[in-house]
Amino acid sequence: MARIIVVTSGKGGVGKTTTSAAIAMGLAKRGHKTAVIDFDVGLRNLDLIMGCERRVVYDLVNVINNEATLNQALIKDKRCDQLFILPASQTRDKDALTTEGVGKILEELSKDFKYIVCDSPAGIERGATLAMYFADDAFVVTNPEVSSVRDSDRMLGILSSKSRRAENGEEPIKEYLLLSRYSPDRVKLGEMLSVDDVQEILSLHLLGVIPESKSVLNASNSGTPVILDEQSDAGQAYADIVARYLGETKPHRFIEEEKKGLFSKLFGSK
Amino acid sequence: MSTGAPTSQKIALEFKSTSLTVPVLLLASNDISLIDQQLKEKVVQAPEFFKNSPLLIDLQKLNAQNLPIDFTEIVAIVRQHGFMPIGVRGGNEQQNGDALAMNLPQHSLHGSNVPLVNKAPAKTLPTPAAEEQKQASQSIENKLVTQPIRSGQRVYAKGDLIVTATVSAGAEIMAEGNIHIYGSLRGRALAGVLGNVNSRIFCSDLQAELISIAGIYQLSDDLSKYPAHKPVQISLDNQTLIIKDI
Fold it and tell me: Given pLDDT bands bounded at 50, 70 and 90, which one contains residue A261?
């Protein structure tokens, strides 16, 4: 049986798709057969971040409507043979998704995949609720600012009440906090909520902190999951997160301000 | 001289409407001796419970089946068994007239939930056991919540509500009784929502958006003068919310 992970947030633009791509790639690189599904029907993005936009033939909605088989729609990643992408449809909207259809796809994928990563759209409407409905684990991506934190809190409420596990009275979804776009400098200046502030409000297990980093935008633009950029801080942060999720103990990084050398202090560059 | 009514007279009485639970004797047979015998059996089961108990006599079943009965006789029998009849309902003109002659008012059938087709004879009086059971089930309508109550969630308790986790901003918790919160209260908490002015809110860290007891509320602006991270209790005194340290 596969483990179904939903990457969700409530608010848009916090890094759900970046996280989905990085986590899926990270799991696959460690040898686990992983599928990543874009649930953002109508605003398809995951294929761009994964760099497979020119290979999309069939999509999630085609499979739901029985217009294509799952194997026809799954795109095998060129960099890692354990990773498969199921893109969203760009020409349809979220009403094309049905609980039965999504359930059937996840059940079929569960047979030979180890992990299924569901990239949730923003909001709490159909696409988002269907992405999380079948989940076993939830990665709640939050930016260190009040509106993102509140939206995450709302999403956590929905996770604990409207999922399949909640409705069947099973063990609840395991929820993890991923704090993204974190900038210790700005926290120090009081411009941003600190890890502790967010933790206090959400009372959630912190899986990792992803620093605000130029490498994320570069990676997105080039269609490479940022985890493959092993030199970058964000790439390392995601690698840590995958390791922690798989049960390894890794100390948290990127929470404290970096000590600047004399040289960079003088010239103000990084 | 007490006749000269002063203009600002003190109010001595007030008419109010209330609804109360009264046993109803629903008659299914017009056989007086059978009624007498079965009443006796019932009373023997719980003599203290039925002693001087008010009783409403319901004749709708009899009249639906056109079974004539002398209302005066029924009243005499139930009085004999220690009941205090307080009226009649579902009676015909003759029976209502008899009742009035004995100073017993006529009650409307509104609120009567007896299906007329039901031919089962029993179901006349609640037994003390059933009454006790009802009370017991009411007392366990308190609610315990151990998970954080997230933004957008609403929790309602018919009795007291006990939360051992945080109540997030944007969440709403309501109770007909008291509210206890052992985490931070950042959302809205409304105690005594059905008007119980004696209900209270207890919380270990007051950062609420709104607190209310029996409809009297305060917003976070008014609450900001109270320090957070300190256990407090909130009660209602003469239409004013009182916040005190515990």
Answer: low
pLDDT at A68 over 90: yes
B84-116 pLDDT, tens digit per residue, is 888 888 888 888 888 888 888 888 776 554 444
Percentage of chain A exceeding pLDDT 70: 96
Please count the other Cβ atoms lying within 10 Å of the Cβ belonging to residue B80: 12
A52 C-beta neighbours (distance < 10 Å), count: 17
**B135-157 residue pLDDT tens:** 545 556 899 999 999 999 999 99
List the B24-26 sheet strands across, edge first. Answer: B24-26, B54-58, B84-89, B106-107
What single DSSP character describes residue A121?
P
Which residues of B are less than 8 Å from A166 in CB distance? none
Residue A11: what residue type? K
Q: Of B88, B84, B86, B83, whose CA–CA distance to B71 is shortest?
A: B88
Mean pLDDT of A47-61: 95
CA atoms of B115 and B28, how far apart (whole Å): 12
Q: How many distinct helices (H) and strands (E) make up chain B? A: 7, 15
Q: Residues B173, B163: contact at Cβ < 8 Å?
A: yes
Q: Which two tokens stand for residue A61?
A: 């909605």
- ipTM over 0.85 threshold: no
Return the residue in B164, B168, B184 with the most chain A beta carbons within 10 A, the one to mutate for interface testing. B168
CA distance A71 to B13: 82
Give me the mean pLDDT over the B2-17 stretch: 66
CA nearest A26: which of A208, A252, A182, A212?
A208
Q: Which residue of A has its CA nearest to B186?
A: A201
Return the higher-pLDDT residue of B14 and A196.
A196
With vertex at residue A136, the alpha carbon angle to CA A47 and CA B163, rounded to the nearest 5 degrees, is 125
Residue B5 Cα distances to A125, A183, B9, B10, B25, angstroms:
68, 79, 7, 10, 46
Chain-chain contact of B169 with A153 (C-beta, under 8 angstroms)? yes
Write out the DSSP string of A55-96: G--S-HHHHHTTSS-HHHH-EE-SS-TTEEEEPPPSSS-GGG
